[in-house]
Amino acid sequence: MPLIKASNASARKKSQSLATIDRTALGRDLKSADIETRIAAVRLAARFGEAELLTRQLEAETDPALRETLLTCLVRIGGVKAARPLIALLGTDDTPLRNAVMETLQSMGEDVLSEITALLENESADLRIYAVNILLSLRSPRVPDLALKVIARDPHVNVCAAAVDVLAEVGRPDMVEALRAVAARFPDQPFLAFAVRAAIKRIG
Q1: How many angstroms separate the CA atoms of 57 and 83, rounded?
Q2: Could you report the per-residue pLDDT of 162-199, keeping only the tens digit for each?
Q3: Checking phi first, is residue 171 left (phi over 0); if not, alpha (psi -120 to 50) or beta?
Q4: What is the residue extent of each domain of the chain?
C-alpha cells in the first residue's frame, strides 16, 4: 500500500510540473508570429482557466478570428475570474475592442453582477455609463433597484440618463417619483426630461 501511495503522489507531482512548464511556455507561444501556435496557446490557457493571461492576449491580438476565440474562452471561464480583467479593458481607446468586451460581459449573466455593481462607483463617468449599459443584459432581479440608486445619487447627467433608459425597460410604477426627481435635479437638460417622460409613460 505505501508503494501505491508513493506512486500516486509521484504522478500528481509530475502532472503539476507539466502544468507549470506548459504555463511558462504560454507567454512565449502567445507572442508567436505563427497563428496556429497562438491558437494552440490560447486553447491551453483556456483549459487552465487563465483568464488574466487570455485578457492580456485579447488586448494584444491582431487576428479578428482569434480575438473572437479569446472572448468565447473568457465567457466559458465566466464569473468574477473572467469579469475582473475584462472590466479593466473597458477604459481602452480601442473602440471595437471595448464594444466586444462590453458584449462579452453582457453575455455573462448574473455571475458578474457584483463586479458590474462595483463599477457603478468608479470615478470615471464613462465607466459608470458602461456599467449601466451592461446591467440590463444581465437579467438580474436586482437591476431595477441598482438603476434607481444611480438616478438618486450619481452626479453626472449622462450616467443618470443611461439609468433612466434601463428603468424604461425594467422599472416599476413605484419608481415614478424617483424618475421625476432626477429630471428636477438636472432642470437644464431637456434630453433627460424627455427620457424621463418616456420612461414614466412605459412603467407608470
Answers
A1: 15
A2: 999 999 999 999 999 999 999 999 999 999 999 999 99
A3: beta
A4: 143-204
* Residue 102 three-state SS: helix
The number of CA neighbours under 13 Å toward the Cβ of 20 is 6
Q: Residue 19 corresponds to which cell in the numbers above?
A: 502544468
All three cell numbers of 149, joined, read 440608486
Report the alpha-carbon distance of residue 72 to residue 116 in Å, rounded: 19
Q: Are 56 and 26 in contact (CB under 8 A)?
A: no
List pLDDT tens digits, range 7-26: 455 445 444 444 554 667 78
Q: In this structure, what C-alpha cell is assigned to residue 123? A: 470615478
C-alpha torsion 30→34→37→41, nearest 10: 20
Quote the CA–CA distance of 129 and 134 in Å, as a whole number.
9
Pull the grid cell for residue 109: 449573466
The CB density around residue 28, as the number of other CB atoms within 10 Å, is 10
Spatial CA neighbour of 56 closest among 77, 79, 74: 74
H helices present in 31-91, as ranges: 35-47, 51-60, 64-77, 79-88
Question: Which residue is it, cell 455571475?
Answer: 111
175 neighbors 203 (Cβ within 8 angstroms)? yes
